[in-house]
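User: When convenient, might I ask for sequence and structure tokens for a protein?

AI:
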Amino acid sequence: MAALASTAQRSHYSNYGTGIEICAPSSNSHAYFRMQVAGRGVTTATGEAGLLTHDFGGTSSATPLVAGIAALVLSAHPGLCAMELGSVLRRTAAKDLDTTPYPRTPAANFDPTPSWDVSPIAPFASGDFTDIGHADGSWSPWFGHGRIDAEQAVALALQLRGGGQAPAPAPDNRWTSRPGVAIPDNRPGGIVDVVQVDTLGQVSFVRVSVDIRHSYIGDLVVSLSAPSGHEVVLHDRAGGGRDDLAVTWEALSLPALRGFEGEEAAGPWMLSVRDEAAVDTGRLEEWSLELGVLVPPRSVFAEDAPGAAIPDNRVAGITRTLAVTEVGQLAAIEVAVDITHTYIGDLRVTLHSPGGTAVVLHNRSGGGTDNLRAQFASADVAVLQALAGEPCAGKWKLQVQDLAARDVGKLNRWSLDITLQVAAPATARPKKKAASKAKASTARAKAAKPKRAKAKAK
């Protein structure tokens, strides 16, 4: 674990290199107090009655913070194994961090060559996030996969459990427009400025900021419209004769913004500014929109109904193949089998992934019970959790063996229902678009529906 200063820089004392998986907020200080570095400490109790400290920090505070969030994620999905838990934390980590390096420690009379300086060196001299081919996204030698994010991690855990949707782990989802246009005085039409959002998914939160220079903000009405046409009034002629409106709204301060939650994010978002009284004038200098976006998980369904006889007391048994073409890493899987047999204690059923992993689903249990009709889901069956992160595309094989004589049966059908992992974080920033119009645009974005892929059986 790496430590992160309140400035979003690497804490000066924090280590770097291939061992860093993730980072968490902590304090900042120079390793030997030879120069000043910015950053606040963590305020916490000291353990003594009535006493507290404002200077708690170090990787000794970052590490237990990660452990606490890991426990929170497990409470959302107790079925996660250790590898899956780590993947959830890495995939949802935030990457909006400051990669500015610190200056090297200055020399002193008593230490003219401070070769011990802990500043990163090649090949880790840069903290930039790069694609190293990791399934959980880009990585930085200073920050690992990014700053731990409890809210996003819990949301992904719920999605893997089947109780929610996965957050898009975008490194940056802020759109800014700087129109610098005059607001017509005492005109009901006002101005409309548009930012074009190209991220598909459902809105989970909205934060909007404006910088309006005006000599009487009580003249102004400011509203935000989603691509659907749903409009929320942000400012309604409040503030009287005060100058300038520089403010940020989110759901905590303006609950009406929750009305955007669940709507499609992609499309034109419009800020409307109207001056509804005469004399005082002003300009819309800048505004920004921040969106949390939930991406519906992609899924693949494949089915085979061979009605094939299972050779009695033959180790080879039968093997059926489903060819899946959908590209992506597996997040969750459910295998359904329908086998007619007069003694299921004879049977062993094994799933083989395209990556070569063999998972035994049924191993000669059930005694003289007739027929095996069952669903095996990774949320409930621990052995299937080993498939998490494996490629989805390729040949999936089901082997059914009858390992004792006399009783016979057949494989009627079997199916796979695979949920794919959310895509790794993109490295590009969202596009910025500024446009000022006298009339509101009528453009609307259509909500994108998640595709459900089909596969062929052999």
In short: The chain has a mean pLDDT of 85.
